[in-house]
Amino acid sequence: MDMNQYLEVFIEESREHLQNVNDQLMRFEKNTDDLGYVNEIFRSAHTLKGMSATMGFDDLAQLTHKMENVLDAVRNHQLDVHTEVLDALFESVDALEIMVQSISEGGDGQLDVKLLVQKLQRIVAEEPVAQHATSSIEYDELVQTLLSQTADQGFNAFEITVQLERTCLLKAARAYMVFDVLEQAGDVIKSAPTVQDIEQEKFESSFIVILVTNESQEKLQASIMEVSEVESVKIAAVPVKKETEMEGLVSPEVAAAIQEVTVSAPSKSPVEEKRQLSNNKTIRVNIDRLDSLMNLFEELVIDRGRLEQISKELNNSELDETVERMSRISGDLQTIILNMRMVPVETVFNRFPRMVRQLSKDLGKQIELQIVGADTELDRTVIDEIGDPLVHLLRNAVDHGIEMPQARLENGKNEKGTIRLKAYHSGNHVFIDLEDDGAGINREKVLQKALDRGIIDGKTAETLTDKQVYELIFASGFSTAEQISDVSGRGVGLDVVKNTIESLGGSVAIDSNEGYGSRFSIQLPLTLSIISALLVQMSEERYALPLSSIIETAIVQPKEVMHVHGQKVIDFRGAIIPLLDLKELFTVPNSVQDDHYSVVIVKKGEKTAGLIVDSFIGQQEIVLKSLGHYLPGVFAISGATILGDGQVALIIDCNALIK
């Protein structure tokens, strides 16, 4: 059987099961009395083992099998839970993730897990789990009645004994494959041992099933023998009484039960049909297909703008009506497509509890990570980029923010520090707040370091507010650490975080209260592909400014413009802000000299500036297109878009203009 067609599903489901194991282990560590977590972990590990064995990834299956032994001993109260047990399980999950990652990259998923397997074997003595010996199967009243009904419908009933090879390592996986063959041929009425015991490998090497089918005995025999590690199959026809012969012999309880059970092999049972309907509500779609769909829709948006432009020029009522309807439908389609691309931030957040656990252990600190709003959704393009900045901020909070337990106690705090990661929607943005109850930021220490590095001068330092001082830690290469740490920064500073977030069209702000903690607040756009923008005119050229960066527009008279150190400035609502003439910045020929300035007020974090343009065209949804490899690093231009009349408008990066 060609397994390549199932590889993508295997990788996705393996990652889901490993994430579930990770999550449940974290919860179990906090409450080791609740064995419900262990059962959940066991189920995911067991499923992963069966999948791995079926796909032929033996190292993965072997390690998962050893994990199962430990988990089984824990849930059966044969093993006390202590740090060594949890660490070994976490280490096993790390190894499994490495193997799955190898498979996803085209590798064979092999990894030397001998030492880890030995560690798991030392934790729990490898005595055989109490097995349920296979005995003859019992034909109770309900089974006999069901068989008699199927006999009247012309189906055969067989008692099938399957003997696995004695050396079979993954018995449950092989049994699963046998059951899969049987269920394709008919309906399994009963098994000995029970299905639950077989799933948990509580049997020696054989099991018995009663099957109702219209397949021949020879075909069944051949199909089952095709399953690997099946030593032998014995099939015997079951003598069945006709339904008329059963009349008067059926108890009321059995009669009632029969009303709820319908056997019509080989079609699906009502329970299976209900499960199928439930499962068919969602499908897996390769992200490349969603990207292709988005690209096609972006072209549609461009053509929609062109049609709207033509409609205005022709002034035809029927055309206007059709274009308006198309615009409304395409708007609904845009909403659906964008929602399809939205991914919960938990896909990023899920890896952080393990990371914080390990870091706090390495540093000798006690830290609790609280996650709020993990179901908040972002476009996958944003999700792909936001992971690394958040990792850096978390490491910074663990290393520099949270104090050592003894220091916290001396300062009247709980010895366990808390880091809170919160995500929430607000308008067309998503906010991610990272807050800790640690030592906060020492204003004087930051100022002194900034002075030493030449980031600011002494005169400027005297005028800075607390918030402006905190912003200094985002300067390139800035770090208050006495020595470079492997945990956070490594001397790089937080400028990388700020630059990455701003490249996504977002912003990051910081607030702190020395002795009580700090908070980083990240603002991100919901999506990067299609954005709302203000189109502006400069001579014969048109440009687009993202609405997310704009505060408002204004008309400024020349007499309102002042000059400070050679820089044009205006008084904007009580604050002095600089004016930037975009025609000068982008070397646009100046053909018109107006008697007023058209100004777009933009922001970047706490900073504000006014951009001078010739005129405002209006708001429009535009498709953000990259400038490609031929025009890298163009100053203050983040991309381009195609307008309704076919012309190209450059998109201005407001963040690059404000310093």
Question: Can you walk through the features of this model?
Answer:
The protein has 659 residues and is α+β, with helices and mostly antiparallel strands. It is 45% helix and 23% strand. The chain contains 24 helices and 22 strands. The chain has a six-stranded mixed beta sheet with strand order 14-18-19-17-16-15. It is flat, with a radius of gyration of 33 Å.
Compact description:
The protein is of the alpha+beta class and 659 residues long. Helices cover 45% and strands 23% of the residues.
How many separate helices? Answer: 24
Helix content: 40-55%
Query: Unreliable segments (pLDDT under 50, ≥5 consecutive)?
Result: 126-134, 246-280
Strand order of the largest sheet: 14-18-19-17-16-15
Strands, count: 22
Topology record:
Elements: H1 7-30, H2 36-55, H3 58-75, H4 83-104, H5 114-123, H6 141-152, E1 156-164, H7 171-185, E2 186-192, H8 195-199, E3 206-213, H9 217-225, E4 230-237, H10 243-246, H11 252-260, H12 270-279, H13 287-314, H14 317-340, E5 342-344, H15 346-349, H16 352-363, E6 366-372, E7 377-379, H17 380-401, H18 405-410, E8 416-426, E9 429-436, H19 443-453, H20 458-463, H21 466-471, H22 495-503, E10 507-513, E11 517-525, E12 530-538, E13 541-546, E14 550-556, E15 562-564, E16 567-572, E17 575-581, H23 582-585, E18 597-604, E19 607-613, E20 615-623, E21 637-642, E22 648-652, H24 654-657
Helix pairs in contact: 1-2, 1-4, 2-3, 2-7, 3-4, 3-5, 4-5, 6-11, 13-14, 16-17, 17-22
